[in-house]
Amino acid sequence: MKLFKSKSFSVFKEPLAKNNPISIQSLGICSALAVTVQLKAALVMGLSLTFVVAFSNLIISSMRNYIPRNIRMIVELSVIASLVILADEFLRAYFYDISKQLSVFVGLIITNCIVMGRAETFALGNSPGASLLDGLGNGFGYSLVLISVAFIRELLGSGTVFGFKITPEFLYRAGYEDMGFMLLAPAAFIIIGLLVWLQKSLMKV
Amino acid sequence: MENLFSLFINSVFVGNILLAYFLGMCSFVAVSKNMNTAVGLGFAVVFVCTITAPVNWAVYRFFLAPGALSWAGFPEADLSYLKLITFIAVIAALVQAVEMVIDRFSPELYTALGVFLPLIAVNCAILGTSLFMVERSYTLMETLVFGFGAGVGWLLAIASMAAIQVKLRYANIPKGLEGYGITMIVTGLMAMGFMIFSGIAL
Fold it and tell me: Which of A20, B17, B30, B70 lies 20 to 30 Å from B196, alpha-carbon distance?
């Protein structure tokens, strides 16, 4: 397939696994861990970040020839902050419960290193089209890690997936119990650590 | 007074901004390899947190909160949706101002903290403190204590991490887990340790 060999496809694909923002570049972990108790919240968070990083890349890249070098940080920050406000207001209007659950973490996308990092390293030097793809790739790479962590935590912690009971009843009767530990903060750190280990040994880096 | 003290203890230990709310992880992972830089960055965070939280409180209280503009004749104005962009601008401006003041009056402190100050403008712990302050509707005194406590908690976490990293250098860590992976797992164990404090009622 020609599509899968093209340069733009590799720009999109790289950050999904080989150069994943969270597990390889160790960027943007701040908000990643706090919202992974439930899959639904993690999914919404991933989508919000993908939206912000894709469009901030697109906008900054289309303005890249007009931004004076020494004030580029503040320009980037205002673009990112405006997009985050859009995402935050949208969630508050249409998904109020999830927005309450995510609390300050949607706002914290502003200081998420992935968004700023992609704007600095990619969008300032590439065409708008490529930057959009790069943003989408990074956003999905981030969401992928978030969803895997949330899947493990929700399944082991409360026996559910997306709120549906998965762990069968006979296991509970045989003495199985949900691991309350999975719902607490330390579990998130440990699961991310183990995921990084898994990925690094699979890829032999 | 008791209330403020328990808020302080709570924000340093039980609700540690890094270990319980995961804020400021990026610089935590990047900087915790060296004790001196870790402590330097930690003190810069304490400093900036203590200043920015009350300033953002005042900005929110008098300009942004619903009905806050009634002193200017706009009682029904609600600008709270602008809080994200305003807070980040206030933080960036304050960091810049603090940097200039320190540079002018205390060159020693500037050489110690100088390199870290620009980094801090994008540290999630700082913005997070301001956002939590709004969400939990603290008063001015509570905000001041909470900002200071959050900074101290962050300093405590990064300093202990740097100390553990020194020991880890001699440990036999499986390949692939080295560096980032083991940092996360050690942080997890540390977070478990800090959770013990949640049994303390003041």
Answer: B30
> What tokens appear for A1 in the block?
């397939």
Pick among B187, B190, B198 to test the A interface (most A CBs inside 10 A): B187
In B, residues 159-188, which contact A (CB 8 Å cutoff)? Answer: 174-177, 180-185, 187-188
A205 CB neighbours in chain B (<8 A) are: 176
- Per-residue pLDDT of chain A (205 residues), as tens digits, is 455 556 667 777 777 777 777 666 667 776 667 788 888 888 999 999 999 999 999 999 998 888 887 777 788 888 998 999 999 999 989 988 888 888 778 888 888 878 888 888 888 888 888 899 989 988 898 888 888 889 998 888 888 888 788 878 888 888 888 888 888 888 888 888 888 888 888 876 5
Instruction: Please determine, for the modelled complex, whether the ipTM score is greater than 0.85.
Output: no
Q: For residue A14, tell me if it sits in a domain.
A: no
Domain coverage including residue A93:
25-203
Residue A17 lies in a domain: no
Cβ of residue A34 closer than 8 Å to a chain B Cβ: yes
Q: Do A29 and B124 touch (CB under 8 A)?
A: no
Residue A145 lies in a domain: yes
Q: How far is CA B169 from CA A174, A179, A198, B64, in A?
A: 44, 32, 21, 49
Q: Where are chain B's structural domains?
A: 7-197
Check CB contact of A104 with chain B, cutoff 8 Å.
Answer: yes
- Does residue A29 contact residue A192 with C-beta atoms inside 8 Å? yes
Angle, helices B124-135/B140-168, rounded to nearest 10 degrees: 150
Question: Which segments of A63-127 does DSSP mark as H helices, in order?
Answer: 72-94, 96-102, 113-121
Instruction: Answer whether B127's CB lies under 8 Å from B88's CB.
Output: yes
Has residue A168 been placed in a domain?
yes
Q: Angle CA(B192)–CA(A110)–CA(B27) in degrees, nearest 5?
A: 45
The domain total for chain A is 1
Question: What's the half-sphere exposure (Cβ side, CA atoms, 13 Å) at B20?
Answer: 17
User: What is the C-alpha separation between A24 and B108, in angstroms, rounded?
Assistant: 37
Tell me the two tokens of residue B69.
């503009």
